[in-house]
Amino acid sequence: MKTQSKGNLRIDGVGSHEGGVFDRIEFNGVGTLKGGVQADEISVNGVGTFNGDVATGHLGVDGMCTFNSQVQADTLDINGTAKINGGLGVGTLNVNGNLKINGGMKGDTMTNNGRLVVTEDCELEAFRSDGLINVSGSLNAETVELNIALKCQVREIGGSQITVRQIGTASFLESFFPTFLQADTIEGDIIQLEATKAKKVSGHEIIIGENCDIDVVEYTGTYQQSPSARVREARNLA
Amino acid sequence: MSDELISKKDLLLVTGISYGQLYRWKRKNLIPEEWFIRKSAYTGQETFFPRAEILERVAKIQSLKDTVSLDELAAMFSPGATHHTFESSGSAIANMISPTALNLYLEETGFSESTFNFDQMLGIYLLETLLKSGDIGLDEGRMVVGCLKGIMEGLSGRNTMLLITRKLGVSTVLFLPVTEEVLVDDASKIVVKIALPKIAQELKEKVL
Known about the structure:
Helix content of chain B: 40-55%
Largest interface: A-B, 23 and 14 residues
Helix content of chain A: under 10%
Radius of gyration of chain A: 21 Å
Strand content of chain A: over 45%
Largest sheet of chain A: 22 strands, parallel
Order of helices and strands of chain B: EHHEEHHEHHEHHEEEH
Order of helices and strands of chain A: EEEEEEEEEEEEEEEEEHEEEEE
Number of helices of chain B: 9
Strand order of the largest sheet of chain B: 1-3-2
Distance between the termini of chain A: 54 Å
Distance between the termini of chain B: 38 Å
Shape of chain A: elongated
Oligomer: heterodimer
């Protein structure tokens, strides 16, 4: 509910602004915001730089944007390239382009069809990726669904249901750029893996599928292993 | 391996909770980040928890999770204040606080409004707990309230402990950071040593 108009900020061309509270912020050229901003909607179609904290309902990046502080958004759509040098708090995150977060993120749901890099921990309810991901911290989500192509990396994965599938057809590229997920540990209730290299996988129901290479599997319920998977040791803890 | 720590694997086995629950509770801040202690083990890094704290916390979550939502539980375990207010003539006060403690608090602070916020309620509840335990007398209670006045704002978010010492019948009331180690001379006796976050949690459990 809007009770009072706070005004719009629109930069077409090259411009900068101190920041403040707005209804809508739109960049169609090269824009810089020197301070923090709060807005119902922010749309970056050119090149944007935000040097202060950003709090918004919807944030869309169709061009290129750098955030040098915390970002808080109900929905965040990245169709271009964005870099967040600070933490991200988000309701729904859609990455169709390229997003790098130098920090951690907390959110509700996210889908990645592009490339996502996070240098610290990710906490979400639902995490789905059909693109490239690289998480240097831990990924904690109720459901984790990774459909991987090329090399993806997540240091630790934890949650209720964790599924990793290999997508894409085998081509000659595969021998130069193999598809696999590299992880240290994967812990969950129901785990289904393909093309995963991990030191340790622990859970209740575990299926180790094709092309996996796992050092240790620990399970308390059921366990299945594909003939093409390599598992050094599988322990039943129940 | 130290007895004070428990590995994640053992925690799951002992309590019967699943990885999904543990990670969910962590996301909801029911288990503080500081309790996840990383140590290197032969399989790489393993996570350990402070044994007593985590077992108590898990038991509490398990006993309450069917009746209280996870978000409410998170509010209960978080150190800060809740948005609760308390009517001075309401049933919460009547059930938890004796008239003696309430009157003493009102006299000392000169508080005249009809509702208390959570921090003020915590002060009253602390006083009530101390008086009820019989460890302190009314005069010492007055000293505690007098001392509390200065740190009332944001009281529930502070990691503070209350220390009352007595030497030859003369009492001293101190509020110190929980982490401080306290040494007193032989003639002094520590009558009360109580961490405020613990009292705040007790109060939250009663009112939520």
